[in-house]
């Protein structure tokens, strides 16, 4: 009996094989691991066909052929050598296990294979759902194999996404290109994302940096400062100096509106992919794609759990294992305690739990890998180190019964979870409420109210995550969408910032004038994302969704072709 496992990548196939047997034989195109043959795809080696594969007349771009909506699906083989190997193995196998990445795209990669090469009659099909690539997790998952049919809804969602993007992308791109007389690529997710960047720059163009001034008073008894509260912004230095000159240094101030409290500050939730990408961009300037590549490599090395997750929680069943991992990787100076209760939330776990270390020792291939791993590790350890205690004071110092200086200050009394970020305890703030305080100095300080900054990978990811009701794209696809916009020269990456190019602006403006606002709408695209989730959950049929997409495609294609405006 031949038992076959198909992984998404060679490195994952090898890791699975080594977990299953101490004696792995490398056959170049697959591994022999005891009773198992473990082979691999190379990502998507099959894709939906080109229009001309359905009808040779569709090779020519002409409005008479639009919209192109095939009645059946056809596929093209992207990697014939790899497909040939897998096809032969599938035909021989009595048991076939899908071990591609545990998500939509992993499901689609495998299902495309068995669609083009159906397994032999009587072959049993299973799904291996891996949350981490450690030996322990692989062996555990192998004991919990599920029938492949349990994941039919996931496959239908993945295929529906692919078909929807094909229909909208092919038809809208051809229609717009025919109208504009130049090639423009249009996509269901990428175009609304571009629209957001263009609109951000339009708003920024209306703004200017604004200089203003503050009068800052220093008070002697405990040497603290307060900002003078004025009815209007002080827009010139002369105006600020005049105000400061009306207050006599040496005057006594009386405390009012005094608040002094100690608050407990909880650690942040664990990382999902998008939150990790945002932090890596903010702290290190890494693009979303660079962070994804680094964390994917860490996953394939067995160092972290499945990266393409949209959850920031752990299931209760993992609580004990998570605590064990924390003890294993923590520095001796850290006192590991109970996991913060809000992090353990069964309802908050989707197909995957939060991104965490596995406890496996790892060698880093790059500085990016090391820094990304450290972000994950520190965030994970922080939830075992207890609450921080912070003293916060807010009060006014009233001088001469009419000049009000406002003070906000705080001190970290107990670092708790913040100790992992090298924060140290500070002296408590003194109670200043019962004393008079002499004004010992007045300074005029220049301030600048900056215009909104350009979008970065971090802020664009934040927009994509929250656009509409369900967001644009998925954690697994957002980095790819941003990079595609850069590659197609719709966006320019300048340092950390993302700016629209003239080409990107022309496309957006022209679509607005053409009346094709549906293509720019985050809300509509977010609705489609929600529909895909409902297909995954079995709440909506793929047939119903694709009918909606077909109607949408017909409408937007006709709108572009019928418009009087040709281009921007």
How would you describe this protein?
The chain is an alpha+beta fold and 568 residues long. It has four domains: 3-144, 3-Layer(aba) Sandwich (Rossmann fold), CATH 3.40.50.140; 156-206 and 453-562, Orthogonal Bundle (Topoisomerase I, domain 2); 210-266 and 387-449, Topoisomerase I, domain 3; 273-382, Topoisomerase I, domain 4, CATH 1.10.290. 40% of the residues lie in helices and 20% in strands. The protein is built from 17 helices and 18 strands. It has helices at residues 10-20, 51-54, 80-92, 104-116, 135-143, 152-180, 190-205, 237-245, 273-284, 288-300, 319-329, 367-382, 457-466, 478-487, 502-514, 522-536, 542-562; strands at 3-7, 24-26, 30-33, 36-40, 46-48, 75-77, 95-99, 124-127, 146-147, 210-219, 224-228, 252-265, 388-399, 403-414, 436-449, 455-456, 491-494, 497-500. The strands form four sheets. The chain has a seven-stranded mixed β-sheet with strand order 2-3-4-1-7-8-9, sandwiched between helices. A six-stranded antiparallel beta barrel has the order 10-11-14-13-12-15. Strands 16-18-17 form a three-stranded antiparallel β-sheet. Strand 2 and strand 3 (30-33) form a beta hairpin. It is flat and about 95 Å long. The model has no long low-confidence stretch (mean pLDDT 94).
């Amino acid at each position: 009996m031949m038992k076959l496992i198909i992984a998404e990548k060679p490195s994952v196939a090898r890791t699975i094989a080594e977990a299953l047997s101490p004696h792995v034989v490398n056959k170049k195109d697959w591994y022999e691991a005891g009773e198992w043959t473990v082979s691999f795809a190379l990502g998507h080696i099959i894709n939906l066909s080109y229009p001309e594969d359905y009808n040779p007349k569709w090779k020519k771009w002409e409005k008479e052929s639009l919209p192109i909506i095939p009645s059946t699906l056809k596929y093209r083989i992207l990697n014939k050598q790899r497909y040939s190997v897998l096809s032969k193995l599938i035909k021989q196998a009595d048991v076939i296990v899908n071990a591609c990445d545990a998500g939509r795209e992993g499901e689609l990669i495998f299902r495309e294979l068995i669609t083009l090469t159906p397994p032999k009659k009587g072959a049993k099909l299973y799904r291996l759902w891996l949350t981490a690539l450690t030996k322990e997790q692989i062996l555990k998952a192998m004991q919990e194999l599920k029938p492949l049919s349990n994941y039919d809804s996931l496959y239908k969602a993945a295929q529906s996404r692919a078909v929807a993007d094909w229909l909208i992308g092919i038809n809208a791109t051809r229609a717009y290109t025919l109208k504009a007389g130049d090639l423009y690529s249009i996509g269901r997710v990428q175009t609304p994302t571009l629209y957001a960047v263009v609109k951000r720059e339009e708003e920024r163009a209306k703004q200017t940096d604004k200089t203003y001034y503050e009068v800052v008073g220093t008070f002697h008894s405990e040497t603290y400062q307060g900002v003078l509260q004025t009815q209007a912004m002080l827009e010139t230095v002369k105006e600020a100096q005049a105000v400061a000159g009306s207050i006599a240094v040496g005057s006594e101030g009386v405390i009012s509106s005094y608040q002094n409290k100690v608050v407990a500050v909880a650690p942040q939730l664990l990382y999902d992919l998008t939150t990790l990408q945002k932090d890596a961009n903010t702290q290190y300037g890494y693009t979303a794609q660079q962070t994804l590549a680094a964390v994917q490599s860490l996953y394939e090395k067995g160092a972290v759990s499945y990266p393409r997750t949209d959850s920031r929680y752990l299931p209760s069943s993992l609580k004990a294992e998570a605590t064990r991992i924390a003890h294993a990787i923590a520095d001796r100076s850290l006192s590991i305690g109970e996991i913060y209760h809000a992090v353990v939330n069964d309802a908050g776990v989707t197909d995957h739990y939060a991104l965490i270390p596995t406890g496996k020792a790892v060698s880093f291939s790059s500085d990016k890998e090391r820094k990304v791993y450290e972000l994950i590790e520190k965030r994970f350890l922080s939830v075992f180190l207890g609450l921080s205690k912070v003293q916060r004071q807010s009060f006014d110092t009233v001088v001469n019964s009419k000049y009000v200086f406002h003070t906000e200050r705080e001190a970290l009394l107990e670092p708790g979870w913040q100790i992992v970020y090298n924060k140290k305890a500070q002296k408590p703030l003194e109670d200043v409420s019962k004393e008079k305080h002499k004004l010992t100095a007045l300074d005029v300080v220049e301030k600048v109210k900056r215009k909104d900054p350009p979008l970065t990978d971090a802020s664009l990811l934040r927009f994509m995550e929250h656009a509409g009701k369900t967001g644009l794209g998925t954690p697994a696809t957002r980095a790819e969408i941003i990079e595609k916009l850069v590659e197609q020269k719709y966006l320019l990456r300048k340092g950390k910032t993302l700016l629209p190019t003239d080409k990107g602006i022309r496309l957006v403006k022209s679509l607005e004038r053409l009346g094709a606002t549906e293509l720019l709408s985050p809300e509509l695209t977010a609705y489609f994302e929600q529909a895909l989730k409902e297909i995954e959950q079995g709440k909506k049929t793929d047939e119903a969704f694709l009918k909606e997409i077909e109607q949408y495609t017909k409408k937007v294609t006709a709108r572009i072709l019928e418009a009087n405006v040709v281009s921007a």
